[in-house]
Amino acid sequence: MYNKAHGIIQTFAPLHVGASAGEESGNLNLIFRDQFTQTGIIPGSSIRGRLRSEMRGVSPEDENIWYGKKAQTGIADSTSESYVKIEYASILWLPVFCPGQPIVWVSCPRLLQRYQRIAGDRLVTQKQEDKTEEKLLKEIDIPQPGTRSRTLKPLKIDEKEKLFFNYGFLEIAALADFSPWFPIGGELPAVVVADDEIGIIHDMALYRQSRVKLKDDEKRVEGGQFFNTEALPEDTFLIFPIALRNHPDGKKWQPFEEESHGEIYLGGLESIGFGNCQVFLEGI
């Protein structure tokens, strides 16, 4: 039997998890994406590897129990099953530049549905009209496309509320309390778009940077050393599920010095300031 837990990631800097520089055609340094929504993800192996390295400094004696023993050449059955399983992290809320706001956090029903499935037993507070109720997240209806948060103040055009993104206007159809859907920091200016629209907005929101390698003796690009990098922007929120087996000695899984959260680096390009984020663990 496994105990269920989950982690929330808030990026403090652009976050890039993908192939190495220059491996794709056209020297594009792309990020991993979900095959259906085409939004960025962080593979579970990347999160697991970083948390394993964090545990080495906190509890090295438990590293092989929680994460499994590494295979040794020439020794049969040298590996062991890990006691912690980590799946990929998907976007929960993505910050997008919007004229007049200037930042709007965007999600879609499919991404919110995954969050609800993972953290459905989370107790949240929902405000409806003049009353406030405490409910489990799995008991709350997922906001539909065109719904905005109370903290978002859209434009009024032709007596209708609208937001302007680079691709055009988005008409607001409803208003809802989004506070149950923000796991950290309270309700932010946000809107939910359709599943078939999130991919376009996601591409507008990505952080992009062109990088070059200069010659050692002059300020000229060395042949072929030019490539573009894309990354998830700062203040992106992501969710990932965790499954835990009971430790044979009854110990608690604690990858950070702080019991339930820690500031770490994920992904690549750390040397130029990418990957700084905060991870919050719930249910461990």
- Identify the overall geometry: flat
Note the gap between the termini. Answer: 15 Å
- Overall radius of gyration: 21 Å
Low-confidence stretches are 21-25
H/E topology pattern: EEEHHEEEHEEEEEEEEHEEEEE
**Approximately how much beta-strand content do the residues carry?**
35-45%
Number of strands: 19
Number of helices: 4
Major pleated sheet: 9 strands, mixed
Can you tell me the number of structural domains?
1
For this entry, what is the oligomeric state of its chains? Answer: single chain
Fraction of residues in helices? 10-25%
Computed structural class: mainly beta
Mean pLDDT: 84
Structure description:
This protein has 284 residues and is mainly beta. The chain has one domain (3-65, 82-282). The protein is built from four helices and 19 strands. It has helices at residues 44-58, 63-67, 109-118, 198-205; strands at 3-11, 28-29, 41-42, 84-86, 89-97, 103-107, 123-128, 131-136, 147-149, 155-157, 160-165, 168-171, 174-176, 190-192, 207-214, 221-231, 237-244, 261-265, 276-282. The strands form five sheets. Strands 1, 3, 4, 5, 6, 14, 17, 18 and 19 form a nine-stranded mixed sheet that branches. A three-stranded mixed sheet has the order 2-16-15, with no helix packed on it. The longest helix has 15 residues, at 44-58. The two termini are 15 Å apart. Residues 21-25 have low confidence and may be disordered.
Compact description:
With 284 residues, this protein is mainly β. It has one domain (3-65, 82-282). It has helices at 44-58, 63-67, 109-118, 198-205; strands at residues 3-11, 28-29, 41-42, 84-86, 89-97, 103-107, 123-128, 131-136, 147-149, 155-157, 160-165, 168-171, 174-176, 190-192, 207-214, 221-231, 237-244, 261-265, 276-282.
